């Protein structure tokens, strides 16, 4: 019978989840779970380097990752002392009697309660210390994340403001000449109107003049001015020149500039958005168009790669693969825990893994992903899975088809693991590399045949 069935709730916290007895030589895993040293050694599979916690399945490096839990040892010892049920004799003064025997049930119960409180207090203090340390770590990480996110959001705001300002200035440049021209015409017509009104009033006053001498003299003075007004551009002609009241812009110039500025905005916002996604999700993966072979086509979100019989007009770059149908991720990774799922077409052979970008050539036989001394990858070809580690391959097992893979990369345990995800059999472990990574790595993919259905999609 286990201690769970005979003792109170305290013993649950002091018992090994494997043997269900009080901890004996307790050790802690990197994930924080505690087990008896002997129990964990029996649980570990000595035939493989793939070790994981019995409870949370977090991977660890093996026996060297186990740490003796001295705090739990102390708590166990304190608990054992209180459960013996006996007390030594008590001496009352120099000549007093000595009594030896079993304490009363009430005394035993009180002592047990005090000890249980003491043990629980020690456990609570230990838990509080760990939680406080965790709080400090989380707050520091959150502050760093907030800072990075704020800078990127500021950049996106700046790009938007620059776009709005630039387009506003462009529209003003297009509309201002028409407005200035119309303003000039209004002023011109106004001046003509004033002069005509003055001439009209002068003519009317002369017509009412009864003195012929005054009339003749006034007419001689007004006639040159009237003749001058009569030969000026008529109002009808001014109206005809500006018949349409609609605003006019140069559509060629305006639309070309709009497209140019919009393209710059999309590119800038896209870059900032992808950077923000990387901040919010350190495992974010997109494929790098500047590394893709010309026969590979990337989706708009840069997460899907497909084959094209027509080579794409990609610019010739030193980062682009030219011999093999390969592509690298835009992001590089050099710390933390990462997990990705990838969808594959299930019929076309492939190679996928991680590599040092600088160690992988871009042309010639040396550019093959599986041949690089700086790559760790899995190959599926002719229904056979193979692992390639720094150029050396190991046949694994025959597999008719692989439609979805899970890839986990842990810099803490130095492990790169692959799992096959099937609707029938669920998640099964395929292979784990013990990779001592000394520089940032990129996710890498090679399409081994140019088939129309060949593709890969990074899902997470």
Describe the protein in words.
A seven-stranded antiparallel beta sheet has the order 8-9-20-11-16-17-18, with no helix packed on it. Strands 10-19-12-13-14-15 form a six-stranded antiparallel beta sheet, with no helix packed on it. The protein is built from seven helices and 20 strands. The protein has three domains: 3-85 and 104-137, Zinc/RING finger domain, C3HC4 (zinc finger) (Herpes Virus-1); 162-262; 282-458, SPRY domain (Jelly Rolls), CATH 2.60.120. Helix 3 (70-82) packs across helix 4 (105-207), helix 4 crosses helix 5 and helix 4 (105-207) runs antiparallel to helix 7. Helices cover 40% and strands 23% of the residues. A hairpin with a 4-residue loop joins strand 16 and strand 17 (415-422). It is an alpha+beta fold and 460 residues long. Residues 265-460 form the B30.2/SPRY domain. It comes from Salmo trutta (Brown trout). Residues 114-141 form a coiled coil.
């Amino acid at each position: 019978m286990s201690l769970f069935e005979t003792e109170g709730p305290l013993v649950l916290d002091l018992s090994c989840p494997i043997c269900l007895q009080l901890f004996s030589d307790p050790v802690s895993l990197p994930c924080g779970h505690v087990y008896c040293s002997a129990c964990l050694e029996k649980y570990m599979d000595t035939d493989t380097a793939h070790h994981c916690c019995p409870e949370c399945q977090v991977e660890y490096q093996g026996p060297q990752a186990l740490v003796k839990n001295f705090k739990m040892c102390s708590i166990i010892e304190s608990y054992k002392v209180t459960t013996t049920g006996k007390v030594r004799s008590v001496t009352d003064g120099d000549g007093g009697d000595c009594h030896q025997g079993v304490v009363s049930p009430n005394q035993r119960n009180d002592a047990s309660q005090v000890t249980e409180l003491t043990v629980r207090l020690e456990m609570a203090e230990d838990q509080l210390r760990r939680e406080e340390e965790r709080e400090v770590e989380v707050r520091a990480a959150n502050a760093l994340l907030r800072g990075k996110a704020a800078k990127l959001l500021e950049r996106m705001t700046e790009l938007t403001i620059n776009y709005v300002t630039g387009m506003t200035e462009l529209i003003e440049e297009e509309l201002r000449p028409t407005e200035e021209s119309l303003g000039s015409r209004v002023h011109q017509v106004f001046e003509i109107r004033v002069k005509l009104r003055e001439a009209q009033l002068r003519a009317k006053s002369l017509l009412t003049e009864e003195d012929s001498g005054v009339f003749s003299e006034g007419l001689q003075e007004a006639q040159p001015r009237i003749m001058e007004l009569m030969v000026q551009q008529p109002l009808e002609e001014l109206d005809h020149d500006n018949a349409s009241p609609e605003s006019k812009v140069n559509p060629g110039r305006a639309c070309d500039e709009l497209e140019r500025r919009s393209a710059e905005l999309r590119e800038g916002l896209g870059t900032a958005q992808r950077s923000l996604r990387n901040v919010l999700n350190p495992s974010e993966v997109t494929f790098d168009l500047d590394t893709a072979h010309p026969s590979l086509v990337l989706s708009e979100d840069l997460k899907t790669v497909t084959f094209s019989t027509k080579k794409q007009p990609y610019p010739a770059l030193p980062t682009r693969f030219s011999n093999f149908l390969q592509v690298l991720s835009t992001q590089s990774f050099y710390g933390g825990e990462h997990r990705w799922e990838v969808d594959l077409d299930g019929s076309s052979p492939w190679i996928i893994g991680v590599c040092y970008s600088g160690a992988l050539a871009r042309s010639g036989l040396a550019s093959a992903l599986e041949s690089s001394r700086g790559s760790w990858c899995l190959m599926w070809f002719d229904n056979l899975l193979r692992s390639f580690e720094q150029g050396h391959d190991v046949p694994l097992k025959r597999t008719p088809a692989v439609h979805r893979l899970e890839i986990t990369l842990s810099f803490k345990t130095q492990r790169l693991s692959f799992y096959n995800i099937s609707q029938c059999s669920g998640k099964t472990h395929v292979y784990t590399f013990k990779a001592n990574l000394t520089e940032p790595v990129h996710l890498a993919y090679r399409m081994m045949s140019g088939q129309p259905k060949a593709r890969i999609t990074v899902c997470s």
